[in-house]
Write a sequence for this structure.
């Protein structure tokens, strides 16, 4: 390492790197690498030290202090994130500070006390009373801040403080007043009474930056006093972070400030407040607004607990597309709907104030006319490449409803990256389905759409079916209603008619789920008519409907003509032996179906016989599910005879039937000369040596090497 290129670097450059390193890393690791770095660490004199108050912190700090002189520390942070009890803090604080020579903190300019108690605060301020502090930051565990303010205002009279951060610490009427002519340039406080706010502006003539956090001005009505009109503050930057700040309050806050050039506002407003409109800002104080160079705001409105209605963002954003906003000031604004938090946002872009993880949102901006679905970080400019990476929307169970589905539909209309959208269980009705259908007429990329367990009904399916006639991208559509009890929310026979008609024209849909939708034989007839002519669908999930033998006859006729279906699930559809016969006839001629699920019907032994006869000739079926079908021993015998000649079936499920031991023996004998890989039947009283047992049911697995 002695000949390392590091030796050629100027020490100040290495020191600049140290500025971004933890002090323990510098002292305990970097310092030990080589003699060159050892010397550079020894000459480094601007350490930022962080001290944690916990049981072993004293020992840790003693070991650090052996290698670090107090005069080399320019910043000290003391915090306790675990203890909620002030007892013992004084002792630990004094013990830690005793590790250093506090009198030699001759260059300590910044002190931060995080999660402190008043007694802890007093101890630290006294111990460091001789330090040349210019910045003090405090967050407190205390619930009342009267004593805190008294200590801070007394202590800083001995320092030439330029910055004071009283994070989320309120400054109200009952708290001590500022002494005359403080030299503060930056002040951060929590909730502040209006009279105290005016007093701050009056008493701090050098104040350039003011941040008020996490609250509203506490008076319900703020009088415009003659005192306010006489104040001429030199504030250049104001940040207001608050809940439910009324427009009139904001006007009163800005009234005494005549040199403002940077305004930041983070707040929650009622959507109907004027603050949501451009005219409010322009009329607020034309002279004042014209002087502002940087204007950043983030205004939110929670739309969770009211009668939600669609808000036309496109018309509202037009108010911010004027020369004053776009050309003169270059203040770019966006409206957004955030589905996961059910919030409406109005904000400037880019925006560094939104401390959230790139929330998925529907967004319209003043920069362009594009309505977009995006996960772009708020601090990135619109048009960033990150807008082009969104491929999946997972929004199940977000209580979106019809009104907010419209936002998603508008964003989907011209989206070119989204391929999957999950909107299941969102109380979307036929109106929301109509909005999505309109979007599908234009969208060219969405392939998977999950609308299961919503409330779209037959009318909603009508809209979607019309879109399916022309849409060329959707391949999977889930309209299942497993969790819906209300029949009015199901698509029923009428909805099935619309879908059947659409299937005749659609060329891309391959998977359709319409389980538990209250469809009976009439609906089956319409769907079957569509399937006869459809050339794309490969999988149909039709579980939990009630088409019966009449309805299955229509399906059977469709299977005779259809050349693309490979998987059909007809679980619990009231199919009896007559229905099984219809299917058997169709399967003799069908050459594409590979999987058929008839679980929980009533085909019985006679139905099993019809289908067994088909298995002797069918060369495509690989999976059959006959579980829970009232099949007994004789039915098992029919199936066993068919298995002797069938060479394609790989899975046969006979669980929850009554085939008994004799039926199991027939199946076992048939397996000796058949290639079926898996048969599921009830647990019998005997097992041939080449059969494997599962704990819950018997898996019959052919082991050719043991036969």
């Amino acid at each position: 390492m002695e000949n390392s290129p590091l030796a050629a670097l100027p020490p100040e450059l290495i020191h600049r790197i140290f500025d971004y390193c933890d002090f323990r890393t510098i002292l305990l690791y970097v310092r030990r690498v080589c003699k060159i770095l050892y010397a550079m660490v020894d000459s480094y004199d601007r350490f930022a030290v962080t001290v944690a108050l916990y049981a072993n912190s004293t020992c840790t700090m003693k070991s650090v202090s052996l290698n670090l002189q107090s005069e080399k520390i320019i910043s000290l942070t003391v915090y306790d994130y675990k203890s909620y009890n002030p007892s013992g803090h004084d002792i630990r604080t004094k013990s830690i500070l005793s590790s250093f020579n506090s009198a030699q903190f001759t260059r300590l300019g910044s002190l931060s006390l995080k999660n402190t108690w008043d007694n802890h605060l007093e101890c630290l301020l006294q111990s460091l009373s001789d330090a040349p502090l210019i910045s003090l930051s405090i967050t407190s565990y205390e619930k009342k801040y009267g004593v805190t303010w008294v200590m801070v205002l007394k202590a800083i009279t001995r320092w030439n403080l330029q910055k004071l951060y009283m994070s989320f610490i309120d400054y109200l009427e009952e708290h001590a007043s500022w002494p005359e002519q403080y030299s503060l340039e930056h002040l951060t406080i929590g909730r502040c009474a209006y009279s105290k706010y005016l007093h701050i502006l009056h008493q701090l003539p050098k104040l350039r930056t003011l941040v008020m956090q996490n609250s509203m001005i506490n008076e319900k009505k703020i009088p415009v006093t003659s005192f306010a009109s006489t104040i001429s503050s030199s504030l250049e930057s104001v940040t207001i972070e608050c809940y439910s700040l009324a427009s009139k309050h904001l006007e009163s806050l800005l009234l005494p400030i005549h040199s403002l050039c940077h305004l930041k506002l983070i707040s929650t407003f009622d959507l109907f407040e004027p603050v949501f409109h451009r005219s409010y800002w322009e009329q607020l104080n034309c002279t004042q607004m014209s002087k502002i160079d940087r204007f950043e705001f983030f205004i939110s409105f929670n739309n969770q607990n009211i009668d939600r209605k669609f808000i036309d963002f496109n018309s509202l954003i037009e108010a911010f597309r004027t020369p004053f906003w776009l050309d003169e000031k270059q203040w770019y604004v966006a409206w957004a709907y955030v589905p996961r938090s059910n919030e409406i946002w109005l904000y400037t872009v880019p925006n560094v104030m939104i401390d959230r993880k790139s929330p998925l949102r529907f967004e319209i901006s003043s920069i362009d006319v594009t309505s977009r679905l995006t996960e772009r970080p708020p601090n990135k400019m619109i048009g960033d490449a990150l807008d082009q990476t969104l491929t999946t929307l997972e929004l199940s169970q977000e209580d979106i409803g019809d009104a907010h589905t419209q936002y998603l539909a508008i964003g989907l209309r011209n989206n070119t990256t989204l391929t999957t959208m999950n909107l299941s269980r969102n109380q979307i009705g036929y109106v929301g389905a109509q909005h999505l259908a309109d979007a599908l007429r234009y969208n060219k990329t969405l392939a998977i759409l999950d609308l299961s367990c919503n409330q779209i009904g037959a009318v909603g399916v009508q809209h979607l079916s019309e879109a399916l006639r022309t849409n060329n991208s959707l391949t999977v559509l889930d309209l299942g209603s497993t969790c819906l009890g209300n029949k009015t929310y199901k698509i029923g026979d009428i909805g099935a008619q619309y879908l059947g008609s659409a299937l005749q024209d659609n060329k891309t849909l391959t998977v359709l789920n319409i389980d538990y939708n209250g469809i009976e034989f009439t609906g089956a007839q319409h769907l079957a008519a569509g399937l006869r002519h459809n050339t794309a669908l490969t999988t149909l999930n039709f579980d939990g409907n009630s088409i019966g033998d009449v309805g299955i006859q229509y399906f059977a006729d469709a299977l005779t003509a259809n050349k693309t279906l490979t998987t059909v699930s007809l679980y619990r559809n009231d199919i009896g032996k007559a229905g099984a016969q219809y299917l058997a006839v169709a399967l003799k001629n069908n050459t594409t179906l590979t999987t058929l699920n008839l679980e929980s019907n009533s085909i019985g032994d006679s139905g099993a016989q019809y289908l067994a006869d088909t298995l002797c000739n069918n060369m495509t079926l690989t999976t059959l599910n006959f579980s829970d079908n009232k099949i007994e021993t004789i039915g098992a015998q029919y199936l066993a005879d068919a298995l002797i000649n069938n060479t394609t079936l790989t899975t046969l499920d006979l669980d929850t039937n009554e085939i008994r031991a004799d039926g199991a023996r027939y199946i076992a004998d048939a397996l000796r000369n058949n290639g079926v890989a898996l048969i599921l039947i009830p647990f019998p009283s005997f097992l041939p040596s080449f059969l494997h047992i599962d704990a819950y049911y018997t898996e019959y697995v052919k082991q050719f090497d043991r036969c």
User: Anything to note?
Assistant: The first strand starts at residue 47 and ends at 52. Residues 683-707 have pLDDT under 50 and may be disordered. The longest helix spans residues 492-505.
